[in-house]
Amino acid sequence: xxxxxxxxxxxxxxxxxxxxxxxxxxxxxxxxxxxxxxxxxxxxxxxxxxxxxxxxxxxxxxxxxxxxxxxxxxxxxxxxxxxxxxxxxxxxxxxxxxxxxxxxxxxxxxxxxxxxxxxxxxxxxxxxxxxxxxxxxxxxxxxxxxxxxxxxxxxxxxxxxxxxxxxxxxxxxxxxxxxxxxxxxxxxxxxxxxxxxxxxxxxxxxxxxxxxxxxxxxxxxxxxxxxxxxxxxxxxxxxxxxxxxxxxxxxxxxxxxxxxxxxxxxxxxxxxxxxxxxxxxxxxxxxxxxxxxxxxxxxxxxxxxxxxxxxxxxxxxxxxxxxxxxxxxxxxxxxxxxx
Length: 339
Ligand code: KG4
Ligand code: ZN
Known about the structure:
Blueprint: E1 2-7, E2 12-19, E3 24-31, H1 33-36, H2 44-66, E4 75-81, H3 85-102, E5 106-110, H4 111-123, E6 129-134, E7 139-146, E8 149-155, H5 161-171, H6 178-186, H7 211-226, H8 232-264, E9 270-274, H9 281-293, E10 297-299, H10 303-306, H11 311-322
Parallel strand pairs: 1-4, 4-5, 6-9, 9-10
Antiparallel strand pairs: 1-2, 2-3, 6-7, 7-8
The structure holds 5'-O-[(R)-(carboxyoxy)(hydroxy)phosphoryl]adenosine and zinc ion.
EC number: 2.3.1.234
Binding site for Fe cation: 111, 115, 308
Enzyme class: transferase
């Protein structure tokens, strides 16, 4: 089987072709970063128009790279939500049109399911596994029991961790997007700030919180600025301190989730991390220690399959198609769509 996948739920326009032998035949991502940078964040209207301007040519290029025509496809997959609704509509309508013209099944997939199943594309991991899903819009721990079978153990009660990285970068004057900028700045730290809070650490549930950490960081930055001491050195030390606190909190919550998941699911096959923040090398390192201590493999897809892409959407659609699942052509894109 071979499918075309389309992703357009945020600020990446993406098209990919993936087959059931887990081969990525094309994986093109066009970032809109430069269009949103002047605004310091993603502007939904700008995003939707940009998806519309670029998606058809990107699909053409992906099909050319894969060396196939639309008639060879077994299905056309698009992100059906959650996300910025203008962009989701552009991607879903495009997929429906291709599917209708070429009489192929259309599959609308949940963007989070794309992230959740990526490790099956890259590492062929078997169900059930524990998933830490960490992106700009989401922060959750789930037991992935099967395609469409996700048991949530915990989630953030305020900001997603990627959002926290983005806000921290803004506070520190590190620019946008924040995650990679914080990680880069942290590498130059000479004395990381160690006394920022570790939200939720030690709690019996598996929830997350990042707003307190963000506030603590803001107070430190404000105080240093007022004292005229906010220089490049302070910036790096605070970036490292913030990253360390965020990772400590993620690590503690994940350790708790391993314990909780094993009570009901003793046969966990792996600890999987997915979503944009999974591109963070320090986080991967920490998670590999947690996995080793729990006698689990850590599976972390390569960075460019962690941040938003269409290969993960194509793959999730393929998994559904293999189970006989498809979506009606009157599927309505969903701005909110819990997993
Ligand atoms: O999955 P993704 O590409 O889009 C969403 O679905 O949200 O995740 C984007 C998020 C952003 O908040 C970005 O700052 C964060 O992932 N991110 C990182 C890193 N690379 C991307 N956070 C920390 N360290 C990184 N290296
Ligand atoms: Zn995402």
